[in-house]
Write the structure tokens for this entry.
Amino acid sequence: MHRSGRVSVVADGGQVPRRGQGREHRPIPELITNLAGKVVDGEIRLPRFQRDFVWSRQQVLDLLDSIARSYPIGSFLLWKSDDSASLASDQTIAGLQVEETEEGEEVAYLLDGCQRLSTICGALYWQPNGEPDSFWNLVYDLEIERFLHRHDLDDPPPNQIPLRLLAEPSRFFNRIKDLPDLLHERADALFNRFERYEVAVVTLHATPYSEIGRIFERVNTRGTPLTTVELLQAATWTVDFDLLVEIDAVRGALARKHYGQIDRMLLLRAIAAAAGLGFSKENVESLALVDHSVLRTAVTETETAARLAVDFLTTEIGTPTADALPYLNQLAVVIEIFRRVPRPTAQQFKEIRSWFWSTALTGYFEGWNARKMANDLAAIKRFANEGKPLDVVVPAPSIGLWTAQQYRRDTARTRALALMLAAAGPRDLRFGQRIDVGRALALANDLQYHHFFPKNWLMKQGTSFDEANVLANIVMLTAISNQQIADQAPADYLEYELGFCDGQELLARLDTLLISPQAYEAAQRNDYARFIAIRADDLLRWAGDLMRGERPARPPRSDSPEVVRHGMTVEVEDKDTED
């Protein structure tokens, strides 16, 4: 019996490879400088599913220090195949332009070691280009024997050697020739350590495309953790499908509606639901096991439904951007609703509006756990397939939502109030024109919100900051009205406003700010406690209308005529816009 022909059977029915098979996977030592040179020359490429460079400056310094001390830095994994030349790859590494290879020229793809090899390439091949704070503006200080980042483009002092000179021996040795003996010896040692430093390189040959993404996922479980999106990108990748590219294409389709920057994980929740799984993180991670044809269909359906969902949110709710949503995960559910019901009836639209406001005003998504996610998906199925109401179990809102919560623009409760105020079709207190609610709802915009009882005035009367800053004290005003009111007592500035319009007109403007005649009377007496009690009750009634699915007042678009911007009435021509 020939020894080379022996076959052993293992427990699971598989076979142990013959001796000699698999040798293409054995580690081969290679100089780190040669490896970096192959990257810059285009012989080694980074496939598109590789993660971006995410290391910190300290991690960069630590790796270089390990090489200088001859510490091990781990092995590298490459993939080389007859078909791999068609694999999409990045044209840069560490900000360096990678050389183009000739057609038919053999290349390898880096599966493991991206952060490490990017660091070596950046350190050795960076050239000053007007970026003094570059990650790769690196030197080795011979006196303190440490690697350092520099933050200018001046020539370093003689004791500091630019790392990029290690790739140019003649320039390196010309620079150190006049150094004192001790520093010269240290410079020689540094050069030799880098020049002779070897790493283990494993190259996969003849490995099919279908296995590459899963191999990448498994070998990248150490080091800087990959995000769920990155792991799924690797696990589902094929030569003609890149999940990250597909997700970003959906975001691009929504960009003209100002929803282009939504979180990728949110879209993955929607895709997982479309693939028949659900909204949870476990459901998302299970996308790696979904058949590619199902995954492709789920992505396509998610893009179509996302367009409809955003149209609904901008026109029926009045959210100009994703930032205006009280809870971003609301969008994942709305996408699934419109995937299953792309053309809702009037009654179904009312149900969806009711669902949105009910979840927005009660904090439902603050505890959106796997159980709630499953219940929501089941409710959507009943809504779509059986004509059942879009049920959601939420507590009844109370006046405490507006009397106990603080005004802070980055909180969900404040964003929910802002949407309520916008939905009332607010008019400027002084000028009477419609307020640009799109501008007001921008997350960074505090200029179009005002404490109806000014905070500083209240605090001078002995009211605490927290008591003055409750949501029930917030109205939507233009910046110029806000500035003119300043810190005046409500009775004083309201009396002044009567000089601009009669009492009935002032009441009409206050009504659009959700200030009732009774709340107005309390403000005329500077009675803050009475005002807050009445206003909170008014907000509660308005919230009830919205939660029953009533249509909000139709605020004008930001490009509509006679919209107040910075306190001035501007005329804007009506223009047709693309859907």
In short: The longest strand covers residues 198-205. The chain has a mean pLDDT of 82. Residues 400-570 form one domain. The CA atoms of residues 165 and 172 lie 5 Å apart.
